[in-house]
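Folding Problem: From Residues to Backbone Shape
Fields: amino acid sequence; protein backbone structure tokens
RECORD BEGINS BELOW THIS LINE
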Amino acid sequence: MTAFFSEAARCLELSSVEEKRQAVDRLGAAVQRGNFHFDPHTEVKAMGEAGRPARPRLVAPADLRRRRLGSEEGRAALVHAIAHIEFNAINLALDAAYRFRDMPHQYYLDWISVAVDEARHFSLLATRLQTLGFSYGDFPAHNGLWEMAQRTAGDCMQRMALVPRVLEARGLDVTPAMIERLTAVGDTETVRLLEIILAEEVRHVEIGSHWFHLCCDQRGLNREETFLKLVADHFDGSLRGPFNIPARMKAGFTQREMDALLGKE
């Protein structure tokens, strides 16, 4: 029987991309078969850096060069950026499953299923990157997703609000424009992968919405007001569009939340 929290922590700490991917798949398979047990007395370690390879080199977002999609290198840089987001998302899902205890059992099963999806997304993109003549690590990247995870390590409600419902939801917003740009330059294979990822990421953000709502309900907090206050506190009062409103509504956002984000309130 797989010890759930111990194994999630081990997956989180692995620095090898391939070892992490395989370990996540094994944990996901064990969970699907019911061949696991919760070990809630496993120590919750202080939030540090997740396991990741030495490359890519991490830089500030402002230091990342923008490349045109008309060149193969430009398309590879875009695929690399998305692959890096998906690699971080593996660690984010693992940490969500490992760090926050006393949640309903379904919470942990949900986040391991997300980790499995993110590992598959990363593999698809890494393979595409290789066909373009590059490998993961060949371009610099930034660490914004993990930095927000560190800032929300002490509160599951804040984590659910600010990582899946803000940072990961940005993927729902920006991917359609990426698909349009890649279609314009004839990169149908990358478009195919992004369409798969976009469809599945709606569920991931919806999972974040579900557990954010539960945390609010447990504390007697208004869901919409709490979310908007967290956005105001952590993102200088607002988020910039454009917003993929249909995808966000499927993922658990309300009309009031969208109106507030669009500046209509």
Notes: The two ends are 52 Å apart (CA to CA). The chain has ten helices and two strands.
